[in-house]
C-alpha cells in the first residue's frame, strides 16, 4: 500500500516516548536549546511555551502517523469536513490533556520553575472563526478523532481571521488579529499539496476525439496557488489524531519584475496582493460589490483546493473516480462550501469525461449538507452576473443541474409554478441570484438540521418544497460539545469534584455524568459545588479587573450573555430588561434586591449597523448604571471586549445564569447553552434551538423558560402584530424604551437610539416587546431562586448531571452511522 510520499519500504519506527516527568523536563530543555537556541537561564515565558508545544507535539505526531497508517490499511471511507471556520482556540492544554500528560507536564515544568498555567495563557487563539459555527467544527474535529472516525477538516488559514475587537468610547473598533506574527508551532507546511485555483476566463468545448458532449475546457484568466498547512487534532487519550488542513494562497508570479524595474513598485506586487487577500480575513464585509466578490473568491478557493486534494488522494489509493462515494464522505458545513457541488461536477465532467447523469449520481452520493440557519440572509446567494464572471464553467453546470432539477419536480407532480420557483437554484425575483442553499440541498444525499426544532422548521419553511420532492433527505443531528475542553479543561475545580463523587466513567462516556443526580440534594456536595463556582467567579472578576478595570463582586449573581451580536439573539432584550431593573431598583430601594452582574460579550459583523449600535448601547447603559450610587452593589453591567474561545473558557465556568434568549424559531441550535449548563449555570431561555431538548433532558423544573413558542411567533407575524399596543400595556417596558430613545443613556446625542427603538414600536420582527414581560418575570423568578441557595445548587447540579447526551461524541456517532456510513 503506497503512502502519501510514495515510500513503501519498511522503515524502523521510533521508540515510544516516555511520560515520566523527569524525561519530559529533559526533552523540554533540549527543545529549548536545540530548536529555539535558548539557554534555560535566559529563556522567556514564550520560549518555554514553544518548547512545551514542541515536546507534546512529538507525541501527537507519533499517534498522527499511526492513525494515518491505520486508515490506509483499512481502506475504509474517510470523512472530509469542509468549513469556512474552525474556532479551535488554544491547542497546547487541549493536546496535553488529550494525550493524558497534563499532570506529568505540570510536574516537569514545576521542576524547571515554570508554571504551566502562566505559559498556557500566552498561546494565541487561532483566528479561524467567529462564533458557534466555527466552534462546532472544532468540537467535531476533536470528537471525530475521539470516536475513531478517520477525517480531514478543510478550511482557510486566515492571517488575521475575523478581527480583534476593541471598544473605544463604547463603539466596536475592528483591528487585525495578528495571531500568526510569531509563527504557529502546531502547523506543518505541505508543499507537495499545492494546487492551482482559477477564476474568470473563457469556456471552450473539448476538442479531443473521445470527448463527451458535456466535456468542456475552462481557461481561467487568473490563477493562484493553494498550499496546505496541516495541524494535527488529537482525540481523547490519543486514540486517533486527525488532520486539519488549511489553505493559504500564493500568486503564480510573486512579483512582476519588469514592472518593478520600470519603477511601478505597486503594480509589480498586485498579483501577490490579490492572492494574499484571499486568506487575509474571515468574512470580508459584503456590503460592497468588491466585498461580495472577495467572499465568493474565498469560498471557491478553499472548496476547489480541497476537492483537488480529495480527488488526488482517492485516485492515488483507489484508482477509479467512480468509487469516490464509497471511499469519501464530504460534509458541507453550512452554505459556504456549497460551490463544491458544482466544482466536483466540473471535475467529473471535464477532467474525467463522465456523462452528466453518472457525474450527478456520484456527486450526490458523495456530499451531505448541514444547514445552520433559517435566516434568509444567512442562506447565501450570489448575483448571477458575479458568479458567471468569476466561475463561468460552474454557471453552465448550475444551469444544467437546475434544468434537470425542475424537470424532475414537474414529473413528480403536485408542484405549481410558485413551488417550482422555490426549488429553483436561480431566484428570479428582482436581481437574479444563485441560491447556494438550494445547490447544497440538490447536490447532497443527506441534509441535516442541528436540533429537533430546527429540523422540523426546515421541513416546514425554507426547504418545504424540497422536502416534498425528496421526503427522505432531511434528518436531524442535534449539536453537541466536547466536554474534554468545556468541562475537564476549562473548569478543573468542577471536574475534580465530579470525578471525586462519581469516578472516571464520565470521562469516556459523557452520559456517565448522570450518576451525579444522586448528589443534587447532598448538602455537603452542594457546599463544595458552590465553593468551586465562587472560585471561578473570583477568577473572572480578577481577569476583568486586569483587562478592563472592572470591579465586580463574586458574591453577586453572574448573568452572562456571550455570543455573536445579532438582533435575533436579542442582546437588545437583555439590555432593555437591565434598564427596567435599574429603574425599579432606584424606584423601590426598600425591596430586597438580588445583587446582579450582567456581562455581555460578542462581535458584530463589520457592516451590521444595528448590531454595532447594540454594543454601543450596552456600553452606554453600563456607563450610567455603574456610576449611579443608588444601585451600587446591586446592579453592574459590563461589556467584555474581544470575546473568543479563551475568554469563553473563563466566563462560562463563572456563570450563574446563562442567557439563551433568541426569538423562538430563529436559533438553529446553539452550543453555548450546552457549555454553560454542564458548567453548572441555569439557563434562562426561549423554547428555541436545542433549548427545547435541554429542557427535556434537565427537566422543566431546572430551566427558566419564557416567551412565545416558534409557532406563536409565526402566528403573530402572520396575523397582524401590533407591538405599540403591547408596549403601552407594559409600564416597565414603555419606561425603559422611552429612557433609551430619549437619550438618557446618550445625552451627547439624544437621538442615537431613536431608529433602534422605533423599530420595536413599528414592527418588532424579533419580538422584543412581545416577550419582554415574560422575560422580566423569569428574571425575577431567578432572583427568588437565588435567595434559596440549596434550591439553586440542586438545580445547577442537575444541569451538570443531565447534559451528557449533548456530547459532540454522540453527535458524531450519529453522523457516522446515519450519514457517512463510517463504522468507528
From TrEMBL:
Q: Name one GO molecular function term.
A: pyridoxal phosphate binding
Output the SUPFAM superfamilies linked to this UniProt entry: UDP-Glycosyltransferase/glycogen phosphorylase (SSF53756)
Q: Name one GO cellular component term.
A: cytoplasm
Provide one Gene Ontology biological process annotation: glycogen catabolic process
As for subcellular location, the record says: Cytoplasm
Report if keyword Glycosyltransferase is assigned: yes
Name the Gene3D superfamilies for this protein.
Answer: Glycogen Phosphorylase B
Q: Which residues carry this modification: N6-(pyridoxal phosphate)lysine?
A: 675
Catalysed reaction, written as an equation: [(1->4)-alpha-D-glucosyl](n) + phosphate = [(1->4)-alpha-D-glucosyl](n-1) + alpha-D-glucose 1-phosphate
Pfam families registered for this protein in UniProt? Phosphorylase
Keywords associated with the record = Allosteric enzyme, Carbohydrate metabolism, Cytoplasm, Glycosyltransferase, Pyridoxal phosphate, Transferase
Write down the required cofactor(s).
Answer: pyridoxal 5'-phosphate
- Report the principal subcellular site: cytoplasm
Q: What is its EC number?
A: 2.4.1.1
Function of the molecule: Phosphorylase is an important allosteric enzyme in carbohydrate metabolism. Enzymes from different sources differ in their regulatory mechanisms and in their natural substrates. However, all known phosphorylases share catalytic and structural properties. Allosteric enzyme that catalyzes the rate-limiting step in glycogen catabolism, the phosphorolytic cleavage of glycogen to produce glucose-1-phosphate, and plays a central role in maintaining cellular and organismal glucose homeostasis.
Say which family it is in.
Belongs to the glycogen phosphorylase family.
What NCBIfam families has UniProt attached to this entry? P_ylase
What is the protein name stated in its UniProt record? Alpha-1,4 glucan phosphorylase
Protein's organism: Sphingobium algorifonticola
Amino acid at each position: 500500500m503506497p503512502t502519501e510520499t510514495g515510500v513503501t519500504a519498511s522503515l524502523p519506527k521510533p521508540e515510544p516516548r516516555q511520560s515520566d516527568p523527569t524525561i519530559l523536563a529533559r526533552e523540554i530543555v533540549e527543545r529549548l536549546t536545540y530548536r529555539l537556541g535558548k539557554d534555560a537561564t535566559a529563556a522567556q515565558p514564550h520560549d518555554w511555551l514553544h518548547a512545551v508545544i514542541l515536546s507534546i507535539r512529538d507525541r501527537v505526531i507519533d499517534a498522527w502517523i499511526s492513525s494515518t497508517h491505520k486508515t490506509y490499511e483499512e481502506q475504509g471511507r474517510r470523512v472530509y469536513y469542509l468549513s469556512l471556520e474552525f474556532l479551535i482556540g488554544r491547542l497546547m492544554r487541549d493536546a496535553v490533556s488529550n494525550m493524558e500528560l497534563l499532570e506529568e507536564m505540570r510536574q516537569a515544568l514545576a521542576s524547571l520553575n515554570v508554571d504551566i498555567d502562566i505559559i498556557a495563557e500566552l498561546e494565541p487563539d487561532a483566528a479561524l472563526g467567529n462564533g458557534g459555527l466555527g466552534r462546532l467544527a472544532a468540537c467535531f474535529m476533536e470528537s471525530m478523532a475521539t470516536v475513531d472516525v478517520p477525517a480531514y477538516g478543510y478550511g482557510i488559514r486566515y492571517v488575521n481571521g475575523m478581527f480583534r475587537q476593541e471598544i473605544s468610547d463604547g463603539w466596536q473598533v475592528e483591528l487585525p488579529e495578528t495571531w500568526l506574527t510569531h509563527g504557529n508551532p502546531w502547523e506543518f507546511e505541505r508543499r507537495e499539496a499545492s494546487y492551482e485555483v482559477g477564476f474568470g476566463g473563457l469556456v471552450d468545448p473539448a476538442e479531443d476525439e473521445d470527448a463527451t458532449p458535456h466535456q468542456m475546457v475552462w481557461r481561467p484568466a487568473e490563477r493562484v496557488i493553494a498550499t496546505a498547512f496541516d495541524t494535527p487534532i488529537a482525540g481523547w487519550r490519543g486514540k486517533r489524531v486527525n488532520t486539519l488542513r488549511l489553505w493559504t494562497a500564493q500568486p503564480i508570479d510573486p512579483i512582476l519584475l519588469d514592472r518593478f524595474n520600470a519603477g511601478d513598485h505597486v503594480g509589480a506586487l498586485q498579483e501577490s496582493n490579490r492572492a494574499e487577500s484571499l486568506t487575509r480575513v474571515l468574512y470580508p464585509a459584503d456590503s460592497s460589490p468588491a466585498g461580495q466578490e472577495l467572499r465568493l473568491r474565498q469560498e471557491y478557493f478553499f472548496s476547489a483546493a480541497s476537492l483537488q486534494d480529495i480527488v488526488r488522494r482517492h485516485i492515488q489509493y483507489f484508482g477509479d473516480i467512480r468509487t469516490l462515494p464509497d471511499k469519501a464522505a464530504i460534509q458541507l458545513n453550512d452554505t459556504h462550501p456549497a460551490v463544491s457541488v458544482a466544482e466536483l461536477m466540473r471535475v467529473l465532467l471535464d477532467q474525467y469525461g463522465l456523462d452528466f447523469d453518472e457525474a450527478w449520481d456520484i456527486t450526490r452520493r458523495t456530499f451531505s449538507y448541514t444547514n445552520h440557519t433559517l435566516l434568509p440572509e444567512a442562506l447565501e446567494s450570489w448575483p448571477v452576473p458575479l458568479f458567471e464572471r468569476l466561475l463561468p464553467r460552474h454557471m453552465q453546470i448550475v444551469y444544467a443541474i437546475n434544468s434537470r432539477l425542475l424537470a424532475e419536480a414537474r414529473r413528480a407532480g403536485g408542484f405549481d409554478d410558485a413551488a417550482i420557483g422555490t426549488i429553483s437554484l436561480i431566484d428570479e425575483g428582482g436581481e437574479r441570484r444563485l441560491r447556494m442553499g438550494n445547490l447544497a440541498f440538490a447536490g447532497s444525499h443527506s441534509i441535516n438540521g442541528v436540533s429537533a426544532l430546527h429540523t422540523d422548521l426546515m421541513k416546514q419553511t425554507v426547504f418545504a418544497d424540497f422536502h416534498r420532492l425528496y421526503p427522505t433527505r432531511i434528518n436531524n443531528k442535534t449539536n453537541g460539545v466536547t466536554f474534554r475542553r468545556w468541562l475537564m479543561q476549562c473548569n478543573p475545580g468542577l471536574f475534580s469534584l465530579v470525578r471525586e463523587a462519581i469516578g472516571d466513567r464520565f470521562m469516556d462516556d459523557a452520559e456517565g455524568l448522570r450518576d451525579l443526580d444522586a448528589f443534587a440534594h447532598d448538602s455537603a456536595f452542594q457546599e463544595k459545588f458552590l465553593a468551586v463556582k465562587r472560585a471561578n467567579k473570583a477568577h473572572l472578576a480578577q481577569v476583568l479587573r486586569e483587562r478592563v478595570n472592572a470591579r465586580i463582586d463574586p458574591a453577586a449573581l453572574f448573568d452572562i450573555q456571550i455570543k455573536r451580536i445579532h438582533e435575533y439573539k436579542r442582546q437588545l432584550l437583555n439590555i432593555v430588561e437591565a434598564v427596567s431593573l435599574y429603574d425599579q431598583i432606584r424606584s423601590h430601594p426598600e425591596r430586597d434586591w438580588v445583587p446582579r452582574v450582567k456581562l455581555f460579550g460578542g462581535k458584530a459583523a463589520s457592516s451590521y449597523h444595528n448590531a454595532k449600535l447594540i454594543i454601543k448601547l450596552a456600553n452606554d447603559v453600563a456607563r450610567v448604571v455603574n456610576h449611579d450610587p443608588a444601585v451600587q452593589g446591586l446592579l453592574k453591567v459590563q461589556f467584555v471586549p474581544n470575546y473568543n474561545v479563551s475568554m469563553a473558557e473563563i466566563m462560562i465556568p463563572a456563570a450563574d445564569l446563562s442567557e439563551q434568549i433568541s426569538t423562538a424559531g430563529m436559533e438553529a441550535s446553539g452550543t453555548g447553552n450546552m457549555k454553560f449548563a454542564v458548567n453548572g449555570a441555569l439557563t434562562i431561555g426561549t423554547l428555541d434551538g436545542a433549548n427545547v431538548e435541554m429542557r427535556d433532558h434537565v427537566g422543566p423544573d431546572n430551566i427558566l423558560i419564557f416567551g412565545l413558542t416558534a409557532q406563536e411567533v409565526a402566528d403573530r407575524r402572520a396575523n397582524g402584530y401590533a407591538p405599540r399596543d403591547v408596549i403601552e400595556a407594559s409600564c416597565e417596558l414603555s419606561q425603559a424604551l422611552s429612557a433609551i430613545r430619549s437619550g438618557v443613556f446618550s445625552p451627547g446625542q439624544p437621538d442615537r437610539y431613536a431608529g433602534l427603538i422605533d423599530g420595536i414600536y413599528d414592527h418588532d420582527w424579533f419580538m422584543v416587546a412581545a416577550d419582554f414581560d415574560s422575560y422580566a418575570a423569569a428574571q425575577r423568578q431567578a432572583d427568588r431562586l437565588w435567595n434559596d441557595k440549596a434550591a439553586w445548587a440542586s438545580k445547577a447540579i442537575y444541569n451538570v448531571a443531565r447534559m451528557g447526551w449533548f456530547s459532540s461524541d454522540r453527535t458524531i456517532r450519529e453522523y457516522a452511522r446515519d450519514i457517512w456510513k463510517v463504522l468507528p
